[in-house]
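Complex record, two chains
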Amino acid sequence: MHWTEYLPPLMQGAWVTIQLTFYSTLLGGLLAFAAGIGKISSNWAIKGVSVAYIEVFRGTSLLVQLFWLYFALPIAGMAIGLDLRLPPVVAGVLALSLNIGAYGAEVVRGAIQSVHKDQHEAARALNFTPRQTLWTITIPQAIPEMMPSFGNLAVQNLKDTALVSLISLGDLTFRAEQIRNFTQDSTTIYSMLLVTYFGMALVLTAIMRGLEAYVSRWRVARS
Amino acid sequence: MLFGYEWDLSSPLAFALSILPILLTGMIVTIQATVLGFFVALVLGLIWAVLKSAPSRFIAWPARVVTEFIRDTPLLVQLFFLYYVLPEFGIVLPAFLTGALALGIQYSAYTSEVYRAGIEAVGADQREAARALNFSGTHTFTHVVVPQAIPRIIPAMGNYLVSIMKDVPVLSVVTVLEMLNVAKIVGDRTFDYLVPLSMVGALYLIMTLVASAGVRLLDTWLPKQGIPLK
């Protein structure tokens, strides 16, 4: 088999990897905001849940989380009489976004806390409610601070999607494995695989830089 | 039965307790892979850092491209690459060594940045002061820059040690019998994945909490003004 014949199945897998990265980064971003804001909440129940979520998912391995959702959760469901068998794609997206969300939550918390105290005092002086202060004063200023770290996390997430091939999801790595099993041409196929991931990471980095410039545009206008 | 330990399926608690020694056997392999991988990452990262700061750009540029490539490609794929491609060139390593090497290579891209950042964080005024005192370049580096860079480098390296530990389960795909792989085998044989995999999660949580506490403790102990090389 000529190496160009590997391209169609690899591109098919690359498309699955792109979709996985997109959905899990998006969902992970939402979780990051929820848990990051939850961690600095004054409500102890919300704070407790957020801290527990962040610690559990940052403290364990992604592969353990993935296997737990895919292999162990159905058995837990059976014990309580529910059908919790997840299709590989759901388990994959869920594990990836829960994992990246926990890391992102710390970024969100850090960025929110880095907003200057004067801003809070000014908001209070203007009679803003805490909720208004958070959404209209703190978060808009915190988002540009988060973006460099979010860019790194997005690339991390892209790399982590390779693990879903282990629960038989047909991503880029899975397709490459299939071709290798068929042709035994390890050197070519894995070199192509590495280069494809590298290319995708470069594109993702460029997209995240663009996004960073977009959310920071008011900073340029101000100075 | 695995590694000579029988399991007791009479109740989830009894099952959990009976497989604990089996999982601890796997945990030892996890720790060994972590330590070896970390060592490779420390040494290789230092080599990258030196090459990247080389005065000649024919050395610095390729080193930068290589580390960027390593950083942007998944550990799993690098592991497959080492495991299946190296033998084609006559280099046959045991799965454990290949795995530790893959971990070390992946994280060397990160540690090289830690070295660079640690050295750059030492202010230019320090170098100027050393020059004013007529220190030679080598003397400035070994007696002024490095002692002050070390307390900045060690905590960051500690965080990567914890990250490496969390990536060890990936080695299970090349048959390394680390903790997750052992739990998976127990699950395959008993048809109960819930208890073994939850146990692995809990053990991981304990391991990372202990390691993170150790890193924090180290951070408070390290003298901020620097560690003299004697």
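Note: The longest helix of chain B spans residues 12-52.
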